[in-house]
Write a structure and sequence with these properties.
118 residues, mainly alpha, 4 helices
């Protein structure tokens, strides 16, 4: 009888570990998609501004969330930078573009790394 009990316990522990691994994988994939979206958003804004080094600007945008977490902070920075460059774009348009680019980033990450994001 102990063997059956241990089998159930092991089975439950295995299921728990499996679910934890799946959740960690989903979190990793979501992080990658969000980072990719932020890079694409930076490249999009750099193009509008006529930035001399779009890749460097995109990297700067990706880094924003490590200093001040939240996509709203990226939107605010983009809005301020675009306005300073004389190419203002409303926050609502930046947010819409962000959502659009998340779908692009999600597809790219799924193609590149496989696995679900949610």
């Amino acid at each position: 009888m102990n063997d059956k009990g241990n089998g159930r316990t092991n089975s439950l522990e295995d299921m728990k570990k499996s679910e934890e691994a799946k959740a960690a994988r989903r979190a990793e994939m979501l992080f990658k998609a969000e980072s990719r979206r932020n890079k694409l958003l930076g490249l999009w804004a750099a193009e509008h501004m006529g930035h001399a080094d779009p890749a460097a600007y995109a990297a700067e945008i990706v880094a924003v969330v490590f200093v001040t977490p939240g996509i709203e902070n990226i939107h605010k920075k983009l809005h301020a930078d675009l306005e300073a460059a004389g190419k203002p774009i409303p926050l609502t348009e930046i947010a819409r573009k962000s959502q659009e680019l998340f779908l692009v980033a999600e597809a790219q990450v799924l193609e590149e790394f496989g696995g679900p994001l949610a």
